[in-house]
Amino acid sequence: MKTAGVVLAGGKSSRFGKPKMFESHEGKAFYEHSLDALKVNQLSPLVISTNHELVHRFEREDVRLIVEEESNSYQGPLYAIHNVISKMDDTEWFFILSCDIPYVTAEFVKEMVSFAEESEADAVVPVQGGRIQPLMALYHKKTETNFEKMLAADDHKLVHLLNDLHVLTIPFAEDDPAFININTATDWNNDY
């Protein structure tokens, strides 16, 4: 089973006030925590999905950078995931992680991959405390046409995409720190 490890790092970080993927935790940029959790599990290739403005800021040589097409408006994660899937024909699964989850662990990635290996599902998605987490999930290559259909309908909501797929959901505890998502600088400075 060939599984790519993909970090989404092309967002606007409008609530954070600056590109949060480069904020530091334990000596590493946020995005590197996601990347390293994928790398420890030997997912290959490792991919960073980003935009033209940020691409020059990534310093890792062990990744493939996939740059989103230039657009007048922000396209969002559904577009970014499709952009990666459509450019990689030799990959079966795509493990997607956002760039702003500095507490994600290699153990979380390993557990999720083990479910995908045994599944006939289109997507394997964690549910934490009853809340679905589509940016910490695996998507099969066969979902490419589903992504295309959503984009053609100008619907960019991942939860709507999931309604159209055979999804295996994996429950996680509400207090699992792997899911801590940093949205604002105030959150980061005050709470973590």
TrEMBL record:
<dbReference type="InterPro" id="IPR013482">
    <property type="entry name" value="Molybde_CF_guanTrfase"/>
</dbReference>
<keyword id="KW-0342">GTP-binding</keyword>
<dbReference type="GO" id="GO:0061603">
    <property type="term" value="F:molybdenum cofactor guanylyltransferase activity"/>
</dbReference>
<keyword id="KW-0501">Molybdenum cofactor biosynthesis</keyword>
<keyword id="KW-0460">Magnesium</keyword>
<keyword id="KW-0547">Nucleotide-binding</keyword>
<feature type="binding site">
    <location>
        <position position="100"/>
    </location>
    <ligand>
        <name>GTP</name>
    </ligand>
</feature>
<comment type="similarity">
    <text>Belongs to the MobA family.</text>
</comment>
<keyword id="KW-0963">Cytoplasm</keyword>
<comment type="function">
    <text>Transfers a GMP moiety from GTP to Mo-molybdopterin (Mo-MPT) cofactor (Moco or molybdenum cofactor) to form Mo-molybdopterin guanine dinucleotide (Mo-MGD) cofactor.</text>
</comment>
<feature type="binding site">
    <location>
        <position position="20"/>
    </location>
    <ligand>
        <name>GTP</name>
    </ligand>
</feature>
<dbReference type="Pfam" id="PF12804">
    <property type="entry name" value="NTP_transf_3"/>
</dbReference>
<dbReference type="GO" id="GO:0005525">
    <property type="term" value="F:GTP binding"/>
</dbReference>
<dbReference type="InterPro" id="IPR029044">
    <property type="entry name" value="Nucleotide-diphossugar_trans"/>
</dbReference>
<dbReference type="GO" id="GO:0005737">
    <property type="term" value="C:cytoplasm"/>
</dbReference>
<feature type="domain" description="MobA-like NTP transferase">
    <location>
        <begin position="5"/>
        <end position="162"/>
    </location>
</feature>
<keyword id="KW-0808">Transferase</keyword>
<dbReference type="InterPro" id="IPR025877">
    <property type="entry name" value="MobA-like_NTP_Trfase"/>
</dbReference>
<feature type="binding site">
    <location>
        <position position="100"/>
    </location>
    <ligand>
        <name>Mg(2+)</name>
    </ligand>
</feature>
<dbReference type="GO" id="GO:0046872">
    <property type="term" value="F:metal ion binding"/>
</dbReference>
<dbReference type="GO" id="GO:0006777">
    <property type="term" value="P:Mo-molybdopterin cofactor biosynthetic process"/>
</dbReference>
<feature type="binding site">
    <location>
        <begin position="8"/>
        <end position="10"/>
    </location>
    <ligand>
        <name>GTP</name>
    </ligand>
</feature>
<protein>
    <recommendedName>
        <fullName>Probable molybdenum cofactor guanylyltransferase</fullName>
        <ecNumber>2.7.7.77</ecNumber>
    </recommendedName>
</protein>
<keyword id="KW-0479">Metal-binding</keyword>
